[in-house]
UniProtKB/TrEMBL annotation, chain B:
GO biological process: siderophore-iron import into cell
Subcellular location: Cell membrane
Protein keywords: Cell membrane, Membrane, Transmembrane, Transmembrane helix, Transport
Protein name per UniProt: Iron ABC transporter permease
One Pfam family of this chain: FecCD
An annotated Gene Ontology molecular function: transmembrane transporter activity
InterPro entries xrefs: ABC_BtuC-like (IPR037294), ABC_transptr_permease_BtuC (IPR000522)
Recorded topology in the membrane: Multi-pass membrane protein
Major location category of this protein: membrane
Keyword match Transmembrane helix: yes
Originating organism: Paenibacillus montanisoli
GO CC, alphabetical: plasma membrane
Domain of life: Bacteria
Transmembrane region(s): 15-35, 71-92, 98-120, 127-147, 153-177, 203-222, 242-271, 283-303, 315-332
């Protein structure tokens, strides 16, 4: 078992490296490997600007955001005990999208760092509403998920209102709402990195609680866990991870849903293995989505969020159907 | 669903008569309001002249060609969506089900946007055809994901919302990549009746009529869906046939409504619940009441949505989504305990 786990971790890691290199190499202007190597050694060459200022930060943001979204997804799926839960479904991304759109439309002259802050505030606003409407998360997990869906729908309606009200400058907002890595720079990397560095270990260290919480409440309580407090803290952690990432890359969907699924089918339900693998797979998915989005109709770009949905959804349908079949054969 | 203490009262013919006449009166008042107030003020006299087609000046033309078809279309779409919602809830035995959750709205929306991008000069009729196929595709996807077993309604809601996200991501992608042709789509995507003209009413009318007639004739069969599966098979009902016809009816009602007015959310979820709480589960009463309530709700929602950002129009879908989300939370909190 240990071996298989190590192999899948290694494979996911190698895939990440390969995808990063390919993302830097290929694009509207392709860069030879030699110049990438020179740039990595910070030696001047004619592709230095493209590699160092455009593609490297983009790859870094993709990796970090992929990690954050997928780990947030792992936590939510385990705590809510629902394989279909994810930051999008709980309404976090819609909340982030609503406040981000509000800043884009109502205060178009505001400085650029307002946008991620607003998105983060939106994610937490959605979470606060969820707290308020579910008696501080003490309702059954299924109800939490449903209330999350409704909160997402309400925020979605708010965003649509803003879009309809200001039809002239919707392109930026639509790009953001779909989720895109276009134009990300080192500044974005440096705002994202510390959060991931702090929150990712925090998530990993709570693996034992997650292992218990994915069963029913009784088991957790009998093992001496303060269920409601732990659930609150863990969901807060997931909200922080996902909210930060959404604020950096926009409302990218399906990564937070899909990466945990793939990881679970490879590593099983134990979170000490699941979380690292899900993080790497999330990074892979983001890189892949961004890369495909850049080359598919180059020199124009398809937003990464749309590509992740396009790659993710068919696989997701396959996963769910397989799971259903397995369950029905088990019952029969 | 049915609180037993009210059961006797709910089925009294006098109560029903009262209920229906109040609703018809409300509908008439709603349509009247929607004709009278809007961007341009119209006096009662001018309104009367216009509706009775006696004068032909600018004001009456305005009422005859803009406000009248709009009010009628809102009413028809409301009826169709509400009935589609009721039928979906019957078919999948899931109180949270609605064409919206089943991916029908998002599927139709995606197909229509795709049609407009792929074939620039799409006729109205082929828009409706696209909407049908999209609606059927969305529903098939969600149902195949969620299964139709009765206990899986949280799963269905999540599967539906996931497919909804997928389809709206694809729709957004099409819009971002083809901004020249899709600029006008944004308004439609939220769900709106503000662009209504007589030709829309004319186009919708056959679907409206066919849907109502089919629903009426299928009414005895649909009753079999309310009882246990074993019982209805024992009575001799061919459940699979009934289900297929019911699903086609839902697609007919919801698909044609979405093709014309965009995915107006949540009407289909709320109205059947309100109707059921008023008269209980007796389908002979419930079905017409749901339709009527749907018409009333959408006419009023359309009327109110004109004043959200007066003098600019706001799509009616915004208002219904906002009300619907609140209602959904209420339902989830009430039913969630049983579901977990």
């Amino acid at each position: 078992m240990m071996n298989k786990n190590a192999i899948s971790l290694l494979a996911a890691f190698l895939l990440m490296i390969i995808l990063s290199v390919v993302s830097i190499r290929v694009g509207a202007v392709s860069v030879p490997f030699k110049e990438i190597w020179l740039t990595l050694q910070t030696q001047p060459n004619k592709s230095f600007f493209i590699v160092h200022e455009l593609r490297m930060p983009r790859v870094a943001v993709a990796i970090l955001a992929g990690i954050g979204l997928s780990v947030g997804g792992v936590i939510l799926q385990s705590v809510l005990r629902n394989p279909l839960a994810s930051p999008d479904v709980i309404g976090l991304t819609k909340g982030a999208g609503f406040l981000a759109a509000a800043v884009l439309f109502l205060f178009p002259a505001s400085p650029s760092y307002w946008l991620p802050l607003a998105a983060l505030a939106g994610a937490f606003l959605a979470f606060a509403l969820l707290l308020l409407l579910t008696r501080r998360l003490t309702l059954p997990p299924a109800t939490l998920a449903l209330v999350g869906i409704a909160i997402g729908a309400a925020f979605g309606a708010g965003t649509q209102y803003l879009i309809v009200k200001h039809p002239r400058d919707i392109s930026l907002a639509l790009l953001w709402l779909a989720g895109s890595l276009w134009g990300r720079n080192w500044h974005d990397v440096w705002t994202l990195l510390p959060w991931i560095v702090i929150l990712l270990p925090a998530a990993w260290l709570s693996f034992s609680k997650l292992n218990v919480l994915q069963f029913n409440d009784m088991t957790g309580a009998s093992l001496g866990l303060n269920i409601f407090r732990e659930r609150f803290l863990l969901i807060l952690l997931a909200v922080a991870l996902a909210g930060i990432c959404v604020s950096a890359v926009g409302a990218i969907g399906f990564v937070g849903l899909l990466a945990p699924h793939i990881a679970r089918s490879l590593a099983g339900p134990r979170h000490q293995r699941l979380i690292p693998l899900a993080a790497l797979i999330g990074a892979d998915l983001m890189l892949l989505g961004d890369f495909l989005g850049r080359i598919i109709i180059a020199p124009r770009e398809v937003p990464a969020g749309i590509m992740t949905a396009v790659i993710g959804a068919p696989y997701f349908v396959y996963l769910l159907r397989r799971e259903r079949r397995m369950r029905s054969t088990k019952q029969a | 669903m049915i609180s037993s203490s009210h059961k006797g009262k709910q089925n009294r013919p006098r109560f029903l008569l009262f209920l229906f006449s109040v609703l018809v009166a409300l509908l008439a008042i709603g349509i009247l309001c929607s004709l009278k107030w809007g961007q341009a003020p119209v006096s009662w006299g001018a309104l009367w002249d216009a509706v009775s087609y006696r004068t032909h000046d600018k004001t009456s033309l305005y009422i005859q060609t803009l406000r009248l078809p709009r009010a009628l279309l809102a009413c028809m779409v409301g009826v169709q969506l509400a009935l589609a919602g009721l039928l979906t809830q019957l078919l999948v035995k899931n109180p949270l089900a609605s064409p919206h959750i089943l991916g029908i709205n998002a599927g139709a929306a995606f197909a229509v946007v795709f049609g407009l991008v792929a074939f620039a000069d799409l006729s109205m009729m082929s828009t409706v055809a696209f909407a049908f196929f999209g609606a059927a595709g969305g529903a098939a996807l969600v149902l195949s994901l969620a299964g139709t077993s009765r206990n899986s309604y949280v799963r269905m809601a999540l599967a539906g919302i996931t497919i909804h996200f997928l389809l709206s991501a694809l729709t957004e992608g099409l819009i971002i990549l083809n901004q020249e042709t899709t600029d006008s789509m944004i308004f439609w995507l939220v769900g709106s009746v503000s662009q209504a003209a007589w030709k829309d009413v004319q186009l919708l009318l056959p679907f409206f009529a066919a849907g109502l007639i089919l629903a009426f004739f299928m009414l005895p069969s649909f009753k079999l869906l309310q009882v246990d599966e074993e019982i209805s098979i024992g009575i001799g009902g061919r459940l699979s046939v009934i289900r297929i016809v019911g699903m086609l009816l839902v697609l007919l009602l919801a698909g044609s409504a979405v093709a014309l007015c965009g995915p107006i959310g949540f009407v289909c979820l709320i109205v059947p619940h309100i109707a059921r709480s008023l008269v209980g589960g007796r389908l002979t009463v419930l079905l017409p009441l749901t339709g009527l309530l749907g018409g009333v709700l959408l006419v009023y929602a359309d009327f109110v949505s004109r004043f959200i950002a007066f003098p600019y129009e706001s799509p009616v879908g915004l208002l219904t989504s906002a009300i619907g989300a609140a209602f959904f939370i209420y339902l989830a909190r009430r039913n969630g305990g049983a579901a977990a």
